[in-house]
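Note to self: the last two entries modelled the partners one at a time, which told us nothing about the interface. This time every component goes in together.
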Amino acid sequence: MKDLRLRLSQSVGMWVALLLFSALYILYSSLHPKGWTVDVLVQNSNESFALILVSMAQTVPVLTGGIDLSVGAMMTLTNCVASNVVSGSAIQIVEGLLLTLMVGALAGFINGCIVVYGRIQPIIVTLATGAVYLGIALFLRPTPGGKIDDDLTWVTTNAMSEMDTTYGWFPNGAPGWFAHGIGRLPVPMLLLLAIILIVWLPFKNTVTGRGCYAVGSSEGAAYMSGLNVGRSKLAAYTLGGLFAGLGGLYLSIQTGSGNADIPQAGGYTLQSIAAVVIGGTSLFGGTGGAFGSLVGAMVLRAISFCFRVFDADSPMGFLANPLLQPIFEGIILLLAVSIGAARVFRVKNRLSLFT
Amino acid sequence: MSGMQKTSVLRSIDRPTLIACGFILVILAAGTLYMLITQGTATFIEPTYLLQQLKIAAFLGIVAAGMMMVILLGHIDLSVPWTLAASAMLATAVGGPWAIPIGLAVGLVVGLFNGVGVAYLRVPSMIFTLGVNAVLRGLMVMLTGGFAPQSSATPIMKWFAAGQLIYLPVGDGFGLSNSVLVWALISAGIVFMLTRTSMGRYIYATGNREAATYLSGINTKFVLIFGFVMCSLCASLAGLLVAGYTSKAFQAMGDTYLLPAIAAVVVGGTNILGGQGKYTGTVVGTILIVLLQSLLSVMQMPEAGRQIIYGLVIIAMLLVYGRSNAMRT
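The predicted structure of the combined assembly is written out below.
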């Protein structure tokens, strides 16, 4: 009981974000003319996937008390790599997918190495490596283009039932549990579930993963307790790179091309920080998690979805004005992160404000 | 006696600044060598070319000067791009004698807002200023309709940015742009403030350990607000100068200043965690960044190569002198 209460109090930010997301998404679905259908769900999860992965990528270094300003750049880099290698025969495609993810993880590993062995502050390291990764991305893809296998694009950006129609999983007709159950879920949503279950949760429960939380809470104490601080940090940045790589890979699958878009990379990096904060992860490290950032990213996306569906003639019509949307999004972003991160409402002792 | 004085002068310039100065010489030598080989002239070290670079450096230098105040406090200001753009846009939109006061007022208001958010609400500066940047962008899109405003800079803004108060009619003529003078005045003011006033001491103290500074009886909230106001004021001033230089304001005019400004401050030896750093370092860092950008564009390096070299130079310089201490028991 006490354990449960402790766990709840540690993840209260995530629960608030989940409530906020539910409210926004219910509002959106009831206003949308085609709300509550598989099509809308598929479209929304496609649009959210890359941001969710980039936010999860941001989370792991933030948990250690660091930050990764190169997540957008790593996403762009893997996007450009994927647009060169993910096509051809089935084996070539699999090789291409693996290569793309390895590039992402390698980019994160390099960040980690410079932070751990170079002993330079993460914020400035990743600022610089971000420039390098964007340069490599531009080098690989000076103009937007490239090619991604069409079947792969089709099945990963649709409902699960397309897997069957494209690859012929069930030659004798799909069984009921597939056609009316899993088949109606969007593939990106299932991919996310798989990434959380196969990558994040196991990592979080290893000694290295626990170490990331310990390092973020107090690096000195973690070091004194005999934890391998360097290994935890290296793992955090590498996992961040892998997540960013997954995001970039999905972006190229979704758009069917690669694009070394520098402003877009910056935008994703900034939004990922916002998503991390909204999802209840402390920027000072030690509390939170990738699942919270997933919810945080969905909140950000749900806000922009909502603006699309307001009727221009209704009393709320001014919300649909495209010229006013940036300011509403800005104000909501500012309010959300301020409420999530303002420590003045939480501290019991005025001195602890200053740490 | 003179030997002792020499060492004390050398000691007053700290190691990062010296290394950065050395690197500037390397860039100048590389640029000159490249020009000699490809064109047979030493354009890269001609005074007119260097003065031109100094003029470009002034805009970045003013932004970096403000950014340094915030970094010295152990914070960061990511709202600089749209503070710069917003003040330039509003100033050109208002026009007339009120253009410059309005532009600076934008900086003042944004700085106060940032400062209150960080000092009183205790939102981490990185996330708060990020949100303020988004709000400012939204405000400007609302006011301008998403396009570059049609109005142009007032004559006095143009004079401050590109006019030449100091002009030596020697040879082709050496003109020192007024923006460089503005940069020099601000630099002198900041050096005086940091080294000769109690506020300067408070800034370093707050950046080192805010709790200790607070317990020493100093109003650290006021110090924080002061730092953020300085940063936003510098950004808005740079916005006015850039608008005067290009004779109009445009949407993304501030985006190219944020990362180079942070890089200039950090390459100049200021600790990104706050509390340490000399203003000379920031000036040297600014010149280094501008010359590096200029060398790469002279060499007609494609954007890809520029980004890569830019990032590698920052990492390499920090590996030489920006490392923190290893953890020891």
